[in-house]
Amino acid sequence: YAKKNNIPIHSWRDIKDGGVSWIDNNEIVAMVCVGWRYMIPKEMIGRLNDNVFVTHDSLLPRYRGFAPLATALINGEKEVGVTVLRAAEEVDAGDVVYQKSVAIGPTDTIAGLIKRLLPYFTEGVVDTIRKMMRGGLVATAQDHTKATYSIWRDEDDLWIDWSESSQKIERTVRALGTPYMGARTMLD
User: How far is the CA of 166 from the CAs of 6, 108, 163, 169, 170, in angstroms?
Assistant: First the structure.
């Protein structure tokens, strides 16, 4: 979307290495961070008057952190979604400016949910930018007492725990397929 609409895209390396002066030198007035895994320095957020937004694949304040979509599916949630929020000093704790949910069906896989959510990432970013430019952006504070967290998933987190219910094992298999490396187990 950004390329089609001549919206500049920059890597985190460029931004991080240049710091606040990079923002000034490039006349940046806002940032939207997609696929984000880094804390943004508060000096940068301040320089941009809090116009730093982050996309997240959960219905915040639930599942802050990494791999929220897989965790929600494993836990048997009935819905998942996309949130666009203002960057904050704490991970995924900023005010929400856009949120959209989709229902999880009984056979949905992680890949299928990603595909269904993808249009809402674009919609959320475009909606946020338009409202910010028009001066009509409304941000809603998260209820931090309802915050839950998700873990970073690595190879150790892909093993099936056979002491779990058959339903949870089945959800785990559906949640850890592509783009993950798949749920696994060992025999003998």
Answer: 49, 16, 9, 5, 6
